[in-house]
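Might I ask for a little of your time on a matter of protein folding? Here, with my thanks, is the record as I have it:
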Amino acid sequence: MPAALPAPYDRAAAARLVEAFAQRGSGERAYAESPAGIALLGALGGHSPYLADLAERESATLLRFAERGAEEAFALALDPLGRADPDAPRTAVAALLRQAKRQAALLIAAADLSGQWQLDRVTGALSSLAEAAIDYACAHLLREAAARGELRLPRGGVRDPRGVARGSGLVVLGMGKLGGGELNYSSDIDLMVLFDPLAAAIEAERAGSIYVRIARDLVKLMEERTAGGYVFRTDLRLRPDPAATPLAVGIPTAISYYESMGQNWERAAMIKARPVGGDRALGDSFLTEIRPFVWRRHLDFAMIADIHAIKRQIHAAHGGRGAHAQVQVAGHDVKLGRGGIREIEFTTQVLQLIWAGRDPGLRDPTTLGALAALAGAGRIDRRAAADLADAYVFLRDVEHRLQMVADRQTQRLPEDEEGLARIASFMGFAGTAEFAARLTGHLNRVEQHYAQMFEREPALGLPAGDEAASLSLRFSGTRDDPETLEVLGQMGFASPTSIAAMLRGWLHGRPRATRSERARELLTLLMPALLAAFTRQREPDAALARFDAVLTQMPAGVHMFSLFQRNPALLQRVAGILGAAPALANHLALNPASLEGLLAGSGPGGAAAVLPALLKEARHFEEALDGARRLVTEGKFEIDAAGLEAAIDADAAGAARSALADAAIAALLPHVASEFTARFGKVKGGSLAVVALGKLGGQEMLPGSDLDLVLIYDHPEAVSESAGGPRSLPVSTYYGRLAQQMVAAITAPGAEGKLYEVDMRLRPTGNKGPVATSLSSFLRYHAEDAWTWERMALTRARCVAGPPGLRRRIGSAVRNAIISHAGEAAIADAVAMRARMLRELPADGPWDIKAMPGGMIEVEFIAQALQLAHAKRHPTILAPTTRLALGKLGRAGLLPPEEAELLIGADRLWRTMLGLLRLTLGPWKQEALPAATAAAMLRATAPLLGQAAVDVAALRQQMREQAGQVRAIFERRLGPLTGGAA
């Protein structure tokens, strides 16, 4: 679209404006005779009688625009609203508001048409005008109420409009396009007026009538037409239950309504809500309080139907007024019609409602900003987002031109040729045909993307070519249908009678998850795809029985069935997991919300990435803890599933699990500390940090790994107790209790399960020592009393939470503790320790990969003992991750390169196998593996072996060979294991 000012459509009208403008004064005459003036006045007068009238009436404003530019001229137009006296008479207040509206409307149109401002600045300026007008009007009305003896205003004497409103109990929320800063040119403003009945009303029982009067007068100030025009048409119908509530609603009432009765369309409306008048801090507090209503904890695909139903109602109610159900040009409503602005907004808002509950980064109130965020997070195809964004900008420009003509709140294109030609010219097109082609191109693309989300159900039936797809399955009554049993047998179920009984129970509402009519409707639609997914498993009867266990545990099924309906690939993944991994099936039965971790699709590290932002948004400690439990539960399951499916290897899975634990600990520590501080104050200059050891420290966590943690604090020597709280505690007691609170937060069970088990036996003096250790005690212990096994554990130490300064000091202390005691004695101690373990804790069965001779423990002992032996002369070999430490030992010449490579390979193989066993079977003492587990094991180990094993017997032989090589290196580099088991 051309960026230059559009040539006048009505040249006679343009000429009349140029002539009238020139008669306003010498400055106006000079501008009207200049090329720039002729072009701008021609564009205004040649298309819009309304803008022509404004240009003539507010000629000085247009001259300021020409001389100083759009930004400065606009600021000058709004400036009087921030400095005017709120105690001025009502007529003076109304006149000033209308003057600001006239001047700003002219400036915004000129900046838009001349290309000085793009769409976001145009809509932002319109929203700023509305907000400034509401601020001044509210200040005036509040001062009037105070003068009547109704309100006691804490800051009633100030002139600043926002200052007047602080502590007033009044909240004005901007909804819709005003809330999003996207107001259109002749838009009405959607407001919600709320109040705190206890904040400022002198008589609390009269608060309702006081604030209702303010709301009524605010509407009158905004929309009453006078000789000066009007400010904004105002709509208060987005308040809670507008048919039954007064114009101003008490905040407690509003919160109760949203918590108990709020609808999905109201959730969508609240995406854009923000305080635009009154006490903004109080408004922000209200929005924080209802945040859980807007941003649900769980993915909610079921509400897509609710939002689409609203669109169908729009077509039914407004089809005769331009909201056509098909794309067209003449008479089409570019907002409500097919392919219009509303379809873009609905698409964007639905995706936000689905995904932004778990990812606060998607909660952008602007349509363009939200589309960009959704595309960046992979929640919408980038091409689709670009199409929608381009169409949004174009259609909003069309909307503005339609409204600029006569200052009418319309989005409907003219039906006559002349009217269409005027709009095409106003948009800068040479003719109607070119404009219509561009318009319909955008409308058609929007229609396609909208239909993809709301109107086209994903294919759920059996795969093409599967004969069973055409056969009916009947589960009515109490008896088995012979044809159904035959079909189930053909599909691959070993016991059709048992399967039929199970399915009949589902469809008759036996599990709680299928007792609602909607749940059974969805299940019936899903049944062909569900059965097809499970018949692809090696043992379909067992896999489906595990799904039955999941259903039995769930309180409701609509949520899960909706997830499957909108995301068929998720059903395939779940069937695969239930078929291969009984342990994961049990987890899913107890934690059905884990499904959302799979559906999130952000990769195994997705939960760790969004967890800090989600916890930062938490209103209080319990909400933060619940959010952490939910995301950790989802994240663990997502990582485990990816590992089971061989989508990621053991290294990536270990790093992802560790990153998730890191994120949870780091995000929770400030919440725990804040909760503790409220009771016991702070230790001035003191702080607490969390140090990870073991698998978390080495970033090698396996499924089900607990957390080996040490909590270390530091504080100035001069400070002996906490201060600033209801109670003071001695420093050691303070940090001991704070550490206990932190451990309790990690280990306490909740509705979403617990975060992790914690093992603190690796802290100085073990279980006998304090829960939290001072940094000075930590240094002293490792300098004087630590055992070799404790220093071996220290090679994996990694600080994961706490202030940066303390983390650096701890890192230095750990490094010094290892280096200062480095020497060959560590090797003999390690050998003696391993020999004792072999005697007292031998391997428990053929698949005890950790404890078996040549297993994971011996690989880790080699890495840790050699680091302790040589760190003084080779400090660069230190690394908490086993494979990285082995690589450094090889590069330093402390291990032959071929041995380092072999040990790294063994470490990766052992972790792969152990992880898979934990996911599928748990502890397993038999030589043979179940078929599904054996297949998964052979698939996972194939890339790690020189020659892929063809069966479990071949795999066991290769395991023995690998373990023998590890044992040989252990004895060659550390020493013989005399007295231990072979």
